From TrEMBL:
SUPFAM superfamilies: GroES-like, NAD(P)-binding Rossmann-fold domains. InterPro entries: ADH-like_C, ADH-like_N, ER, GroES-like_sf, NAD(P)-bd_dom_sf, QOR-like. One of its GO terms (cellular component) is cytosol. Keywords: NADP, Oxidoreductase. Residues 11-321 form the Enoyl reductase (ER) domain. Signal peptide: none annotated. Gene3D superfamilies: Medium-chain alcohol dehydrogenases, catalytic domain (3.90.180.10), NAD(P)-binding Rossmann-like Domain (3.40.50.720). This is Quinone oxidoreductase. Pfam families: ADH_N, ADH_zinc_N. It comes from Devosia elaeis.
């Protein structure tokens, strides 16, 4: 048996239950992982609430690091004793679990387990957005919402290292200061300033080349107003609610704009793409281009409190659960 945090019905953080579940021997293509650190992500809250439905009951969480304890038939990707991490595989809030071996990524020497668990999902999100969705070029100007969040702090540092001018938004003076220390050339307190007007001021009226928006409903139209003609809005999250676009004509009126709603499920469906992104991410971490901020740590048993803190905008950087 292993301790897990399970969800039996959709709802708020209170539906997260600490339970003992059995762990089977790994089958063909599987590995059993003893987990040492678990990453907290907004997608965990979407699945818990029912916004992204999963079959009930399920074990919450999508990202973790740990050690391979056993492997099933036909597994060649990893071996017993390897330090590994994974993302995008529900069931992470557990002391031990089975994971498809093809989803596992080796943790390089010199990278701690907690760092790997804190950075992989958020870092790969930053990777596909910055390198694939809109490949950022030196000299371009980008806007990143929630720049002091877990994904934001990683992405803004990476974009700065690529030579972009980085504008970030955040929700308090403390978060603005944090964003400015992590790659943002300019940071806007959206609670005090009209962020589209400020972006236009900072860009001399031109607008930015691309907006990366994980906030969703609250920032969608304002994000469109920040773009230059034929710019791109990459909407990759729903922290403030789901975006709906009933009138596509708005994109024409605001400058023949492009909008996309990407997800890592499609960018990393092939193992070679997953490993390519992970290599780029860990190289950026090891070089110092990305400094990972783990500002809150919770015991696995306190997952509900961690969800409340994340949804209440009480966190900055990454949050890790420890089994």
């Amino acid at each position: 048996m292993t301790r897990v945090i399970a969800v039996h019905e959709p709802g708020g953080p209170e539906v997260l239950r600490s339970e003992d579940w059995p762990v089977a021997a790994p089958g063909p293509g599987q590995a059993r992982i003893r987990q040492t650190a678990i990453g907290l992500n907004f997608i965990d809250t979407y699945q818990r609430s029912g916004l992204y439905p999963l079959p009930m009951p399920f074990v919450a969480g999508n990202e973790a690091a740990g050690i391979v304890e056993a492997v099933g038939e036909g597994v060649s990707e990893v071996k017993v004793g390897d330090r590994v991490c994974y993302q995008g595989t529900p069931g992470a809030y557990a002391e031990e679990r089975l994971v498809p071996a093809a989803k596992l990524v080796p943790i390089p020497d010199g990278v701690e387990d907690r760092v790997a668990a804190a950075v992989l999902l958020k870092g790969l999100t930053a990777y596909y957005l910055l390198f694939k969705t809109w490949p950022v070029q030196k000299g371009e100007t980008i806007l990143w919402h929630a720049a002091a969040g877990g994904t934001g702090l990683i992405a803004t540092q990476w974009a700065h290292a690529l030579g972009a001018t980085v504008i970030g938004t955040a929700g308090s003076p403390e978060k603005v200061a944090l964003a400015l220390r992590h790659g943002c050339d300019h940071a806007i307190d959206y609670k005090k300033e009209d962020f589209p007007a400020r972006v236009k001021e900072l860009t001399g009226g031109r607008g930015v080349d691309v907006v990366y928006d994980g906030v969703g409903k609250a920032t969608f139209e304002g994000s469109l107003d920040c773009l230059r003609p034929r710019g791109l809005l990459a909407s990759f999250g729903n922290a403030s609610g789901v975006v709906s676009v009933p009138d596509l004509g708005i994109l024409a009126r605001k400058g023949s704009l492009f909008v996309t709603r990407p997800t890592g499920v499609h960018y990393f469906s092939r193992r070679e793409d997953l490993l390519e992104g992970a290599r780029a991410l860990f190289e950026a971490v090891q070089s110092g281009a990305i400094k990972v901020e783990i500002n809150r740590t919770f015991a696995l048993e306190d997952a509900a409190a961690a969800h409340r803190a994340l949804e209440g905008r009480e966190t900055t950087g990454s949050v890790v659960l420890v089994p």
